[in-house]
Amino acid sequence: MALAIALALTVPAVSFFLSRYHRPAAIRSLVVLPLENLSGDAEQNYFSDGMTDELITDLAQISALRVISRTSAMVYKGSHKSLPEIARELNVDAVVEGTVLRSGNQVRITAQLIDASTDKHIWSHSYRGELRDTLSLQDQVARAIAGQVQVNLTPQEHAALTSVTVVDPQAYESYLKGRYFWSKRTADDLKVALTYFNQAIEEDPNYAKAYSGLADTYALLGDWQYAVMTPREAYPKAKAAALNAIKLDNAPGEAHTSLAFVLDGFDWDLDSGGKEFRRAIELNPGYATAHHWYAWHLALLGQYDGAIVEMKKAESLDPLSLIINSDLAELLVLAHSYDAAIEQSRKTIALDPNFAMAHNQLAQAYMQKHMFDQAITELQKAVELSGDSPTCIANLARAYSLSGRTSDAMKLLNKLKSSSTATYSHASEIAAIYVSLGNMDEAMNWLEKGYAERFNPGVLIRPAFDPLRSDPRFQHLVQRVGLPN
């Protein structure tokens, strides 16, 4: 049975009065470091990580506060770096750290707010309650931190932090497990996340966040980076789940973001997609993924300057996110800022030399500058590191072709063709190779195949298709998927 979490729940609390109270000049940015799991049971990590994620989400709704996203915060789990060092790396004014102890049906959350520059405590408090009280405890922590940093809340933000939530405790646990595996961002973990989100919905059919998690999962399962499901299989399910989440609770920015992603990438309805992205950002201005995906929406419209601004907002909120840093480099290529793209890609590679897409994006800039040998070297790394990503293979084939190594390009072309299936043919990748080989008729044939399979229209803005832009057949295709000519 669903349990109503009381708004003003009275919870026994222990305050830690500090011998030297410290008040910084101003706090406009902070990071919530991973809350420590004190249970002694590693299998409870999903719970402490979930508490961290929820606290970040609550605080990220405050437009006057820049809150570092989960991806970057989780890099410091178990880190021995000093708080001032972490704060410098993330460029924040303050740090929130704390612990979570769950014992049976009892939960204790302890949080501390620390001035980043001086490493001095500003505030500390401990909250105790039953498992069913967890959401209320989280809201209390978020409200207390908002009060301590002295930011002005809008009426909408105040309502979000004081709203009454109805959720079944078992459904909430399943949801946290779903988010735990979803955040790992591998194909296998996404499948596990799908199971937990469906389980949460079975346990509480009115739980909006479970539907939002389901929408996020289907959106990634159908994306080219994971390709666990075809777009025709995944995206209608993502859209249905997002609509259910919004119907149950119009507030979560995550649900509007996932809906916008599908409207752009599958429905080819850019007007509606744009409205949903703007609504998502209005509801949760600190949600990095909303800015990240909205940047690509603007790119589809040819608004590259605005797209770069949005991607840089996403980077500011999630500075250690490899995919955001990599995608910023790709946008710079689209905007013809090749040297800036090279610099950005090298920055991403410095964060993680084994991130395949950073090498892929660096190669795109090299190819635009006709530095084909350097592009080939980077793309060979990208293919190896990605486990034969079709996109990386196609780009390597293009680099071979453009450098005169036609036979090597044909080998990779045939490899992609042989790995195609009846439901998914790598059509846009194959089309891009044919463009590099100068066979525009075959390129258009494969693009039409991709159109029939409902490809993401973003493939058509790639530099690989620049030689086709004056072709009336290509212009008609661009028009049919809703992109501006």
Automatic annotation (TrEMBL):
Domain of life: Bacteria
TPR repeat residues: 356-389
PROSITE patterns: TPR (PS50005)
Protein's UniProt keywords contain Repressor: no
SUPFAM superfamilies named among the record's database cross-references: TPR-like (SSF48452)
Keywords recorded for this protein, A-Z: TPR repeat
Cited SMART domains: TPR
A Pfam family of this chain: TPR_17
PANTHER family from the UniProt entry: CELL DIVISION CYCLE 16,23,27, CELL DIVISION CYCLE PROTEIN 27 HOMOLOG
The protein's name in its UniProt record: TolB-like protein/Flp pilus assembly protein TadD
Species assigned in the record: Silvibacterium bohemicum
